[in-house]
Design a protein that fits this description.
The protein is of the alpha+beta class and 59 residues long. It has one helix and five strands. A hairpin with a 2-residue loop joins strand 2 (13-14) and strand 3 (17-18).
Length: 59
């Protein structure tokens, strides 16, 4: 089983506060991966290329 999460460059600042470096791990699924990819794309468009990315791990 795989799990995924979004990671964020620690230098990214959201609305006057520092972002958490990563979201919590969740079970990988097509729906979760699609949702995360949308969020990562939006984050990279707003804050710069490679500021948001997907991490995977095997459980």
């Amino acid at each position: 089983m795989k799990q995924i999460r979004i990671c964020i460059d620690p230098d990214v600042i959201y609305e006057q506060s520092v972002a958490r470096p990563c979201t919590d791990w969740i079970d990988d699924s097509a729906d979760a991966r699609t949702a995360f990819e949308v969020l990562i794309k939006a984050g990279n468009e707003r804050y710069g290329e490679n500021t948001h990315w997907l991490e995977e791990r095997d459980m």
